[in-house]
Design a protein that fits this description.
Oligomer: heterodimer
Radius of gyration of chain A: 13 Å
Structural class of chain B: mainly beta
Shape of chain A: globular
Order of helices and strands of chain B: EEEEEEEEEEE
Helix content of chain A: under 10%
Largest sheet of chain B: 7 strands, mixed
Structural class of chain A: mainly beta
Radius of gyration of chain B: 13 Å
Number of strands of chain B: 11
Helix content of chain B: under 10%
Number of helices of chain B: 0
Largest interface: A-B, 24 and 26 residues
Number of helices of chain A: 0
Number of strands of chain A: 11
Order of helices and strands of chain A: EEEEEEEEEEE
């Protein structure tokens, strides 16, 4: 079945780059997403990438997509303490058109 | 800023009580969702709706029920709450398109004693 995997924790120092990785199983996924959840809040769409793209950049965020390996990554440049949150990778599921979310990666940024 | 609202924000109730969690959106989105979120972060889809009078069960079996009488409103009801229902409940909405961008409410943290 469709599945999305990500590592659960990442800790970085302020000013460093963060790279959050994700693997997915459905090779027919058309769109892949990154959502951010701050403490006590709902999820917020950060960025998404269409499956025919390899890379998408949006200010400090860079998304890389390797379709062959079904690997998606989110790079945050110059990570700030305000970037501390849980980051969810998601793909569009085929069957009911619902998003399939990973378990989330908790990013901790140390000053 | 997302125009999707959940009430109450926090709820502490005793076992056996009936409760309704409210979710409303003003964006005219057809598709709406309820997710249950573990303390360990994982999201579980429990209900969704394609539009008015449509309700579907999600991937995780839930004792809750939902209704969709109006486009903007998607309440979730627990007829008899139990401690195992203690969780964060997140409501979301989207246009139901191929590129489905979801907007989430702030969630309801439910504690059943």
């Amino acid at each position: 079945g469709e599945d999305v995997e990500q590592s659960l924790f990442l800790s970085v120092r302020e000013g460093d780059s963060s790279v959050i990785n994700c693997t997915y199983t459905d090779s027919s996924s058309t769109y892949l997403y990154w959502y951010k959840q701050e403490p006590g809040a709902g999820l917020q769409l950060l960025t998404y990438i269409f499956s025919n793209m390899d890379m998408k950049q949006d200010q400090r965020l860079t998304v890389l997509l390797n379709k062959k390996d079904k690997h998606l990554s989110l790079r945050i440049a110059d990570t700030q303490t305000g970037d501390s949150a849980i980051y969810f990778c998601a793909e569009m599921g085929r069957s009911q058109g619902n998003l399939i979310f990973g378990k989330g990666t908790k990013l901790s940024v140390k000053p | 800023e997302a125009d999707i609202y959940q009430t109450p924000r926090y709820l502490v109730i005793g076992t056996g009580k009936k409760i309704t969690l409210e979710c409303s959106q003003t964006m005219g989105h057809d598709k709406m969702y309820w997710y249950q979120q573990d303390p360990g972060m994982e999201l579980h889809l429990i209900h969704y709706s394609y539009g008015v009078n449509s309700t579907e069960k999600g991937d995780l079996s839930s004792e809750s029920t939902v209704s969709r009488i109006r486009t903007e409103h998607f309440p979730l009801t627990l007829e008899s709450a139990r401690p195992s229902h203690t969780s964060q409940y997140l409501c979301a909405s989207g246009l139901g398109q191929t590129n489905e961008k979801l907007f989430f409410g702030s969630g309801t943290q439910l504690s059943v004693l």
